[in-house]
Here is the input.
Amino acid sequence: MTTDPNTQLEVIRCAVARHIANGLVSTIHIRAQAARDLATELDANGANVDGLVEQYLISDGYSATEATTARAAADPDPWAPKPSITEYIPKPVRDVLADRLAHMLLGPAGGELQGEARELTFALKAEGFDLSEPIKQHVTDLTLGPDPADVPF
Here is the structure.
């Protein structure tokens, strides 16, 4: 083991660059994000290791552009819809909410409840909890009654 500070610093730079290179090509999103964050922080503070990272990527069979492309693809799209959480909400809760919202939507035209029901439905949808189809089904059931072709049990 060497006690030369310059040699020790170079060993640390190489270890950090290897970690970043491995993280950039990782299929684990959190690890890839951590590698990008570390590289960005080092760049921002004048400790750029991009050249070493590129060397490690090439020695592992990757190209720098491939890692850069993967880097860009892994960045979240700010315009992408939020992932659906509907299936994580228990069905009885979804049914009750859809039923109540359907009743509110069928209230007096131009009523305050209709506006609140619309706002709540679209706010939930924006957060990934889409009740549109269950509400449509409840409105249909409330206005037309049950489908006579449906089996009653």
